């Protein structure tokens, strides 16, 4: 006898002893959003949000440059856009398309995100925005923004007379 009725989980719980058979329960799954940008069906809205939220980007600063690394598995370099906007803003965007569904296909689990993603980073004053370089290798986008050398002020020793 189960302590929690299966209807509590929307009837989607297969085996109570299998931790992977429990999907996340969404109380708003079929809730109709109305008006504005939320007028899209919930599933499309959720997948677009997940794609944006799941685009993980690391930013490290070395003595020579700011280096951004983004994991974008399955994307080609033609599907990713890297731009520097006015105001020293680095923008990385793209779109991961859904797999085409065949009429006879039966999906058991859909976990990979699809949809558009967009991330923006305000670059510091020492960034050379006119020399930004980007490379894509094995699903990892690397954007390198060189830094201007900080010139140390010259110190002139003054002889003290007397």
Automatic annotation (TrEMBL):
It is found in: Cytoplasm. Residues 48-162 form the SHSP domain. One of its GO terms (cellular component) is cytoplasm. Its main location: cytoplasm. Keywords: Cytoplasm, Stress response. Belongs to the small heat shock protein (HSP20) family. This is SHSP domain-containing protein. It comes from Escallonia herrerae.
């Amino acid at each position: 006898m189960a302590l929690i009725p299966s209807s509590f989980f929307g009837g989607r719980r297969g085996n109570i002893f299998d931790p992977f058979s429990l999907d996340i329960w969404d109380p708003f799954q079929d809730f109709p959003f109305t008006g504005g940008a939320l007028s899209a069906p919930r599933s499309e809205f959720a997948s677009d949000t997940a794609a944006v939220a799941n685009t993980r980007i690391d930013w490290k600063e070395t003595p020579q440059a700011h280096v951004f690394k983004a994991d974008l598995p399955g994307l080609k370099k033609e599907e990713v856009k890297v731009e520097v906007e006015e105001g020293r803003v680095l923008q990385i965007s793209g779109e991961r398309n859904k797999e085409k569904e065949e009429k006879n296909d039966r999906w058991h689990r859909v976990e990979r995100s699809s949809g558009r993603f967009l991330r923006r980073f305000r670059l510091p004053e020492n960034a050379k925005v006119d020399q930004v370089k980007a490379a894509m290798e094995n699903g990892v986008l690397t954007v390198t923004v060189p830094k201007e050398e900080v010139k140390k002020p010259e110190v002139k020793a003054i002889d003290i007379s007397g």
